[in-house]
Amino acid sequence: MSFRSLALFALVLAPALARADDWPQWMGPQRDNVWRETGIVEKFPKGGPAVVWRAPVNAGYSGPAVAGGKVYVTDRVLAKGAANPDDPFDTKQKVNSTERVLCLDQKTGKELWKHEYDCPYQISYPSGPRCTPVVHDGKVYTLGAMGNLFCLEADSGKIVWKVDFKEAYKAKPAVWGWAAHPIIDGKKLITLVGGAGSHVVAFDKDTGKELWKAGTDAAIGYSPVMFTEAGGKRQLVVAGPKAVYAVNPETGEQYWTTPYSPTGFGYAVMTPVRVGEHLFVAGYPGKNVLLKLKADKPGVDVVFNNKKDTAIYPGAVQPFQQDGLLYGYDDSGWTYAVELPSGKRVWKAMGPVGGEEAKGSETAFMVKNGERFFFFAESGHLVIGKLTPKGYEEIDRAKVLEQTGAAFGRKIVWCAPAFADKKMYVRNDKELVCVDLAAK
């Protein structure tokens, strides 16, 4: 190859090499809570990391998605004169409001387009949407807290297709609304729906046509689905309120199912985690199940089911597996490291939330970058730290966002951040901020 050809090749290749990572869905590009960009700060500068921009948003728990130079986030706006119930567990009152999908410029935070629709709320903790948007192939998919699924053009916000789960499937909202993040699989968008025989549904991602439906659990639950391979088959694993089951992701045909303890889960928010030959699911109130995948055919054997004081019982935070251990925040508020398949608790600590004693449901979203983690704590702090078999080690912390919400008698901000272009994007009920995390 001539020098001229090499030079032209380098010019063509350079933009691809320089392109920053996107964060197009919940838990990142590979849905594993790993941020693979390099050149990230080891410690924060004095005064904390710089805020690149702030953009006004309204209430919600949903995290942002970042893709193609744009930031997508959903929120909720109360109707004029409307107010949420004083008791956040009151689901009898119907509160008039609208949900919105906002598209912001990634560099400036300027609003590029907005899609909003009428959406009365009748759920517990009715702050706003829960699910992170999914950006894929020029489209953005959003699922609101009251079961409104939209496919919009990513550049314009124009509706491509939509489905209202309450109307199309006669589904009733779960206590905390629809909260299981949808996922793209080939030509399919798959998500929990609810209704008779439609616990989980696969839609054509381009048309919204139903491709298959599966599951008979009348309650919806909150656990996003996961994919795994075992027994010679690719399997879609679903954790419902009363059972864990697997289906063929192409057809919805059920491979296997196994029930939880008789009372089931009040909620399981975590996606099932595979650890070697095992699948682990847990949730509130203090329930868990560990299954061993069969090697010769699709199926499972129960290792333990509702084993007291074993492993962890995650609330809103997805646990993370490394070093042969599962690290995560328990609904009790403690951070644990646990061994699987034994379920033995190796250590516990307050972790990045800090403090001396857990009060319950403390939350810190964790994302791995290199050999350390970035934690976004409910206190509004961004924390750099390590999780090892020996314990939790804190490196640095900085306050980056105000706590605009409240739960269990304390101020909180609950949001799974996005990490892209060497920055963090995170929101509360008033603003979405872009925080610079590039090493200088």
Describe the sheet with the most strands.
4 strands, antiparallel
Mean pLDDT: 92
Record the strand order, biggest sheet: 1-34-33-32
Q: What gap, in angstroms, lies between the N and C termini? A: 37 Å
CATH class of the domain at 21-39 and 57-218: Mainly Beta
Q: What share of residues are in beta strands? A: 35-45%
Outline: globular
Examine the coordinates and then state which fold CATH places here, giving the name of the CATH topology of the domain at 21-39 and 57-218.
Answer: Lipocalin
Q: What CATH architecture of the domain at 21-39 and 57-218 do you see?
A: Beta Barrel
State the helicity in percent bands.
Answer: under 10%
What is the gyration radius calculated from CA atoms?
21 Å
By secondary-structure content and strand pairing, the structural class works out as mainly beta
Question: Would you identify the regions where 5 or more consecutive residues have pLDDT less than 50?
Answer: 1-19
- Total strand segments: 34
Please count the helical segments. 2
